[in-house]
Amino acid sequence: MNERLALPGSTTPIAPAAAPGVVPRTVWGALRRHRWLILACLAAGLGTGFMLVRRIEPSYQAQTSLRVSPPRPGLQTAAPAVAVVEDDNIATDIRVLQSRTLAEAVVDSLRLQVTVAKPGGARRSSLLAGMAVAADVQPAHYRFERRDDLTFDVTDAESGASIGTFAPGAEVRIPEGQLVLARTASRTAEFEIAIDSRQGAAASLIDATDVSQQDRNASVVDIRYEGSDPELVRDVPNVLAANFIAMRREVHSTEARTTANFLRGQLGTIKGQLTEAENKLQAFREANQVVDLPVEASTQVARQAQMQAERGVLEAERASLGNLISQARTRARIPGQPSPYRELVGHPSLLRNEAASEMLRSLTAVESQRAELLTRRKEHDPDVVALTQRAQALESQLTSLVTTYQRGLANQVSSIDNTLGTFSRRMDQIPGKQLEFARLSRQTRVLEETYGLLQTRLKEAEITQAVQDPGVRVVEAADLPMKPVGSQKGLLLGLTGIAGLLLGVGAGMVREYRDGTVHSRDDVQAATGYPVLGWVPRIAELKESEKRPGALASARRMLTPGGGGTALVPAGALPLLPGTAAGPSPAADAYEWLHRNLQFAEPDAEVKTLVVSSPLPGDGKSTSAAGLAVTLARRGLKVLLIDADLRRGTLSTRIGPRKRGLSDLLAGNASFQQVLRTVDVGNGNALHYIPTGVLPADCTRLLGSARAQALMEWLRQKYYLVILDTPPINVFADTAVLGGYADAVMLVARAGVTPFDALVECAEQCRRARLPVLGTLLNDIDPDRDREYDAAYKWQSYAQSYYTASQA
After folding, report:
1. Which pairs with CB-CB distance under 8 Å and at least 24 residues apart come from 286-292?
2. pLDDT tens digits for 391-425?
3. Are 611 and 738 in contact (CB under 8 A)?
4. N or C, which end of the chain is more exposed by having fewer CB within 10 Å?
5. CA dist 376 to 323, 385, 392, 419, Å?
């Protein structure tokens, strides 16, 4: 009883780590700390994947291959208006295979408006022997449930309306048409038939069909269809390919027939135009006497030149004769000299005239006879006169002859001029005639060529119409699939597992990131800068009594640890605190370690009054104060526990009646003996305890009164240790008031609950108030949960076997 608490050492606090934040932890450590959360998410992902895999219906796939070649040349037509589609593009054929027209044709051929909705993988032919549904219907579902007598109750799956009861082989009349149950339908206990519109079934067919060209170097198109009915999976690509071939051949035949008809019509038209053009050309040639216009033009030009030359000669001759005649007439006759008309005979043109030559010889002879007579006779001699008259007559005849010849030359020149005028007019008409002739000839020639080309095309079209289109044929038909295609169940299961694992890792990282609480002694010392006097493991008895949070609160706490700590001391739980009734426990030994560390924390000071506080409510300060008090009282030390939390008084609420307590004592309304309680802690020892009393309105003033200070001085003399449980420092200033009377202050933090920042603020408040803080206590440590934060926690597992042995 005389044992005293010796607290060696200095009270000088250790400076906190600068801007500590959350103590760095490795990613691997975080994953290990949240391994159960990650495993839970992984299990959830795998479970989800397993459920999805079970819901996947078996799917079958079949493929038909078509060889598609460009159309043979020969159908090209000279008429651009002909609607002949020369489709040599495989991409166009693929697009045609995916067209709604072909899809609707397949729907009609295979009655795809009626499908088996459930069970997946069932063959429609095993359930229905026949079906007839209108094209324009609304989607519907019908459920067939087998009765004990092997008949089926048919109901509308959506409205639940009954259609009737039908036996296998019977015709089921539904609003959309009729269905005939197959004989083998009785093997299936329940199935559902889906009815769709023709347009909807075609759209579903297009979605489930894949048409592609696998090899760009091969003119082969693959039609792949996937569905749950293996028979339809086989039939759909085959029917689609057959319809495509028939459509293409029909188009091919129609194009050839249309081309031939068009060519025949064009031939008739061209033939009429050609006949008319030929007639016009013939009439033109006959009217204009056209044989060969270029030759004719050349001949005309040559002849015109010749006539112009001839005219020039005649004109020159005529002018020359005119001059001679004029000179002969004007020249005087000299007696005894030759006649001047004799020179006319010297003209080249007259020299070639026999009549003129004969006259010239006669004139010469007469003049010779006259000259001979004049030598013997006189001028007046009758013979001379007769010869003179004879000479004059000959000269007159010669002049008349030359004049006549000259007139003839003038007439020839005039005739040539007329001929040249005619030639000139003809030459002027030649270009126009040639142009018209060329136009008529060209029109005739073009029509002849067109007529010949049309005849050739007509023969080709008739040949094409007579033969089949070899450009498309089935290379490989689809067979009945014997087993489902790879449903990728393993992949789906793996993906969901990976998703669950990633979700778990992500949740763990989020939880780690948002975990701003302290977990280890290093965390507490880094936050406060004070030494850690001890750590207390979780008290199993108190843990069981905690209120279990709801599912939503548990999930929130899982992702956001730390917040929302609750009081550890349940109502009436003081006897259950370690070392009171349950015997030795890890918590009891932890409080013993705390006691020893308190003894040697301040060797030069005697601690008689100890204030226990924390940053926030729920950090375990009341539990720690009670645990330390009970541990010391159990050893027989005189210890007084005071519930100085006049704001709420957790100990008074949990342990005993609040009536008559510290507030009454400080207010002078009750004596010390009236407020003192005695609690049996076992082994004949007792703990003195003072509750809060009636909670005052101004507790700070009451705690700071002189009476309170005097009470503390008096209690220091009466007890080995006085422990005061005070309100949280970060909320109220009561601890700062009481700390001024106490010998020491101990700060309590709760692992996984007390925020690091709150603990930093709490330490700063203590320093600013100059409170004698001895150190800190970390409590409510779960060694299994927190062993990844502090290596010392794992050693706690060795102690469990000792406690088990002592209890046995």
Report:
1. 288/433, 288/437, 290/433, 290/437
2. 888 888 888 888 888 888 889 889 988 888 887 88
3. yes
4. C
5. 38, 13, 21, 60
Q: Are 774 and 612 in contact (CB under 8 A)?
A: no
Contact 762, 777 (CB under 8 A): no
Beta-bridged to residue 115, according to DSSP, are: 194
In the block, tokens 């000179």 appear at: 327
Give the span between the Cα atoms of 562 and 682, in whole angstroms. Answer: 35
Buried b (16+ CB within 10 A) or exposed e, 429-467: ebeebeeebeebeebbeebeebbeebeebbebbeebbee
Model-level pTM? 0.48
Query: Pairing relation of β-strands 721-725 and 677-682?
Result: unpaired
CA distances from 582 to 490, 518, 575 (A): 54, 29, 9
| In contact, 268 and 447? CB cutoff 8 Å | no
* Cα gap 112→110, rounded to integer Å: 5
pLDDT for residue 572: 45
CA distances for 353 relative to 39, 341, 347, 357, 395, angstroms: 150, 15, 10, 6, 16
> How many whole angstroms separate alpha carbon 681 and alpha carbon 678?
9
What dihedral angle (degrees, nearest 10) is formed by the CA atoms of 532, 533, 538, 541?
-160
CA distance 338 to 627: 194
Residue 407 tokens read as 């007139």
Rounded to 5 degrees, what are φ and ψ at 211?
-115, 120
Whole-number average pLDDT of the chain: 81
- CA-nearest of 67, 91, 64 to 471 is 67
Q: What is the DSSP letter of 610?
A: E
Q: How far apart are CA 679 and CA 681, in angstroms?
A: 6
**DSSP β-ladder status, 532-537 and 721-725:** unpaired
- Euclidean distance between CA atoms 669 and 801, whole angstroms: 52
Amino acid 747: pLDDT: 94
DSSP state, 48? H
pLDDT 10s digits, 216-239: 888 899 999 998 888 999 999 999
Give the pLDDT confidence of 251-299 residue by residue, as tens digits: 878 888 888 889 889 889 999 999 999 998 888 888 877 777 777 778 8
